[in-house]
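Tutorial handout. Part one gives the primary structure; part two gives the three-dimensional structure as tokens.
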Amino acid sequence: MRIRLAKCCLALALAAAGCRTQSRSPTDPFAAQSSGKAAGIAQRNAPNGQGVQQASFQKPEYVPLPGKSVVGMIPEYNGEETSESDGKSTWEKTLETLKPSNMEKALKSAVGRGPDEQIAQENFDKGEALFKEKKYDEAIKHFKEASKRWPDSALQEDALFYLAECYFFSDRYYSASDTYVNLMKKYENSRYLNDVVLRQFAIAQYWEQVAKDHAWYALNVTDKTRPYFDPGGNAIAVYNFVRMNDLNGPIADDATMAIANYYFLHNRFEDASFHYEQIRKEHPDSEHQLQAHLLGIRAKLRAYQGPQYEAAPLLEAEELIEKTLTAFPAYQLKEERERLVQAREAIRFERAQRVFQSGEYYYKIKYYRAAQHYYRETMRDYPDTPFGKMALERMEETKNLPPVPKDYFKWLTKLFPTDGARR
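Part two.
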């Protein structure tokens, strides 16, 4: 507001003194002046080496029309100056310039290390020659330089891939994996996708094996084949990278199965069950289908914590057993078929125990009517289990007992009646 008021006062003062000002209207044909960069491009592109000669114009002075206020000619100021070309304010342009990435580019350009396709190509050619000679450590610096000197190009894509390959073949797996990830971030549809997922899968397998001998918290600063810490967690991250970047690829199901098995072996049965289910649903033609069904059943059964806890894993396991027995013929299941039948009976036993335990809960607090409800359900649905016989005995024991315990605080209820008891 102060700037706007100052502009108005300045315009009035100039008008009173008889001064004349120049127009800054966007329609003024002399307002646009070519920048030095644009002039240089025009000169280079001119035929016969003749550049565009800029004429020097004398801008006409603006004389206010009679009856019009000079103040009305001043455009309103809204607190920020905008550019007609891109619509960005001065503040937005300043912030854009001050970004670390842009400042780094400006600094590199200032010291002569900005983008240069010729230098990038020369470094790539040198790196490729060294790569063929298996001089990977020497080739790394050339591929790095090629990648930096010509960004956002096919040349950079090639350089990043060969840089990762150099790390891979020189047994620097953590750097290799990191570079493969950067390559796929910049070039999602890279032509090197198939090679990248195969390399990453091999790295993840190696780290999974290493994790058996090294604790996740053990810091590593000497072995370049391993990450700095937690090789198992890094293996899972790389397996997930393979899954997400090649959902329908030839080893996507292998990566998912590897994750599920890792979680199963580390007693993370809910996570394992989730990934086995991913194989069953997303990879119906996978060679891991049978194992995903069988191990999925085991994971769900081990995730079940007893009759006092959630019954969902138990019910899901029972449903999966029925699907497995239906989907796979006996010759394919072999001895697993008998184990599945036994598991189904064990689940039925657990379900009977859950119902009977509910009755026992009410039996202990002397709500015999509620307890008898669960005893009847046990007798009806699971008569051939031990709990069916125990429920029958409880029914005989409680048939003459009061349905609810005696209320020793009846006087307190009358003194402070509930909303339903009030008239």
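Part three, for discussion. The radius of gyration is 39 Å. The mean pLDDT is 81.
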